[in-house]
Amino acid sequence: xxxxAAHDGWDLxxxxxxxxxxxxxSALPGIASQRPAGTLPDALPWLECANxxxxxxxxxxxxxxxxxxxxxxxxxxxxxxxxxxxxxxLVPGDGWTLRLGRGHAPAAPVQIVHFGTGGAxxxxxxxxxxxxxxxxxxxxxxxxxWSNRLTDIALAKGARLMLARRTGSAGFxxxxxxxSVGEGASLVVANLAAGTADTRLDGLIRLAGxxxxxxxxxxxxxxxxxxxxxxxxxxxxxxxxxxxxVWRSVADDRATCSVAARVEVAPGAQKTDGEQSxxxxxxxxxxxxxxxxxxxxxxxxxxxxxxxxxxxxxxxALFYMASRGISEAEGKALxxxxxxxxxIDRIGEEDVRRAFGAHxxxxxxxxxx
Amino acid sequence: MSDADQIQGRNREAQEAVDRASAYEWGFTSDIEQxxxxxxxxxxxxxxxxxxxxxxxxxxxxxxxxxxxxxxxxEVSWAKLDIPAIDFQDAYYYAEPRQxxxxxxxxxxxPEIRRTYEKLGIPxxxxxxxxxxxxxxxxxxDAVFDSVSVATTFREELKKAGVIFLSISEAVRxxxxxxxxxxxxxxxxxxxxxxxxxxxxxxxxxxVYIPEGVRCPMELSTYFRIxxxxxxxxxxxxxxxxxGSYVSYLEGCTAPMRDENQLHAAVVELVALxxxxxxxxxxxxxxxxxxxxxxxxxxFVTKRxxxxxxxxxxxxxxxxxGSAITWKYPSCILQGEESVGEFYSxxxxxxxxxxxxxTKMIHIGRNSRxxxxxxxxxxxxxxxxxxxxxxxxxNAEGVRNFTQCDSLLLGDxxxxxxxxxxxxxxxxxxxxxxxxxxxxxDDQLFYAMSRGLNREDSVALIVNGFAREVLQQLPMEFAxxxxxxxxxxxxxxVG
Lengths: 369, 495
Fold this sequence. Notes:
The complex is a heterodimer of chains A (369) and B (495).
Chain A (H helix, E strand, L loop, with lengths): L27 H5 L22 E5 L2 E2 L10 E4 L16 E7 L9 E20 L4 E22 L4 E8 L4 E10 L4 E8 L4 E10 L5 E10 L4 E10 L5 E10 L4 E10 L7 E10 L5 E10 L5 E9 L3 H9 L4 H17 L5 H19 L1
Parallel strand pairs in A: 1-5, 4-5, 5-6, 6-7, 6-8, 7-9, 8-10, 9-11, 10-12, 11-13, 12-14, 13-15, 14-16, 15-17
Antiparallel strand pairs in A: 1-2, 3-4
Chain B lengths: L2 H17 L14 E3 L6 H10 L4 H15 L23 E3 L13 H10 L3 H7 L8 E7 L2 E5 L2 H7 L2 E4 H7 L1 H7 L10 H9 L2 E7 L8 E7 L9 E7 L4 E9 L7 E3 L2 E6 L4 E9 L11 E11 L5 E8 L4 E4 L2 E4 L5 E10 L4 E10 L5 E11 L3 E10 L7 E11 L4 E10 L5 E10 L2 H9 L4 H12 L1 H4 L4 H14 L6
Parallel strand pairs in B: 3-7, 6-8, 7-9, 8-11, 9-12, 10-13, 11-13, 12-14, 13-15, 13-16, 14-17, 15-18, 16-18, 17-19, 18-20, 19-21, 20-22, 21-23
Antiparallel strand pairs in B: 1-2, 3-4, 5-6
Helix pairs in contact in B: 1-13, 2-3, 3-9, 7-8, 10-11
């Protein structure tokens, strides 16, 4: 199922395009022209979970059936489309589909490992939950090359989905999400971008039913010349919806973290409650943080607020810790950890939260030696 | 007149203003013979304007260069605005009153123009000074009637202080060295489509130079007004504050009612050298179009200040209630160490008005600071956007910024949007941004009405409270006018 997109005539956006003003996609054609090595890894970053659920291993976008356990997940054509999106549209319609019937709630999360060995690979996915169904999906990106994904999410009335993703690979990971959240349904998307890959996350989450809930956020950790780039829209289409966007960016060395997050409130979507919190932490002189917390509101009875801050670690807090005998390096590590924890601690599932916390910890350990 | 009388008088005025009909009060047209440039825009138009103003060759060359650059530029499309196509060939680029007086005082003005000013409500303070009231606060007015400055008062007193306060065409002739040095140095010709157009065809405007160490003895003020049908107004303002000087500049605008949409593309450039401070206040109340969105001014303004010197300060305050379309981002380039930029804004849109306004704070100098307070009020079927940028460059140590953007929605047919950009390349920066969106709560209304106010007054009161932080930045005369305007502009929007 390895897909090789036609690389000519891609027409990749440039920083002149508003939604891509902080992006740098110039490396993509180069990565795509590499030949994948195709070798299978021995150890894979499966999560330790109390219950074992489905496991999917994709190497360069192709399912390795021998090391996967499908448990009802369908592999084949996927109903997902992002015609207007410059990266999403490169994804042909094949991939995996998770469909749960009314009231189904498997105890174990679906685990997916995407392993890249070079070159470009594209994969589509769809999660469709019927009324009151519940699922958790955990995706991990490792290896190298360019992994390009398109994910379509449809949650019916009362359904709940937790989608957690972490990138620990090299190369480039681009994720394009299209989600529709029905009446009283809940979608939580948590991201952890560590590793050395550049990442681009594009999300459009529509709160299409009354009283829907959506949460999208995460921690972006960047060093070297790495770039993490988020472009997210949460659209309240019906009354009574609630959304939360909590992003924590840490940029070291010459790295750049950018978050453009928008809350849209459509006419008539009264009683909307939307909140954004975008915070950036600069650990080095040459690092860059960009933030664009945007509100677009067409209803009057709403509660929408956002806060954004950018800066370095609080000198007063560092001084306080130093006066308590904590070394500077330790103090910095503690404060940075607390900063990142704001985003990670929101992950509700304990197994996942622990694994993501440990992953972030590993990155931070390197930052502060 | 005692203080109590004064306050009573002000209250009465405010009450009268509120009582007036919701139709655009200042929609009148004065009939004065006008000299027009031929309709349309070409190199000949540019030459015509330049010749009319007896400009030196370098000025004409500068205009022509801008015109040629403009031909290759495109209109801006990124703002959240629905801008109808503008036919730039279907407008007059120059109109001036036939009588071109060199006046010593307003008394000598063409009575027709004089009456126009009266209808405009040139401030009481100004009238007091004219009547010889002692101790009255002084405001110097450079009134722009369509395109040519017809009266400049207080010139003598300013001269004594060494302050140059001239129309820009006079300044081109009398102080070419200063104009050449600073014109286009903050807003380059090719900066954007409308600034470029302005550079080619600017008709008149104001030039201010405050010499080193001088605190300008009075507030300087210009009243802009668009009068003749179909003449775009292209004002050019240039204010230079030399080392250690201070100036406060007021700009107020009204325009008569017209059916065709009128284009206004002004450029304002401010330069503050070491320790200098410029305070620039605007009340903009151009015709917004009728309730159905017919007519109204298109206001595309490029305003930018350069804090070139150490410890220099530029403060923009604006109250925007008029215009069908507002596209305006008064900005500060904070080059000097410890320089300060401020932006205080109230933008009110009603009916079918559209406003996309905000600021840019570019931090280049060490320890530079900026404050942004933006209050957007949307009513009717209008759209109101705050668009701002805070950028901290890599070498700018110790930068601080605080931004607050609040939106108030009146009714469920309007839109309020916030588009802030934050770009930080220096870790010592401390950047904070907050935004909220709210409506007038029933509790607030109930409270105000239980105290005997009617619904409309209650709303005006609450809106004024919402905008308070900005209004209190305005000089006294303007603050009163601005409060009235907020009330008037909201008339008919409260159910």
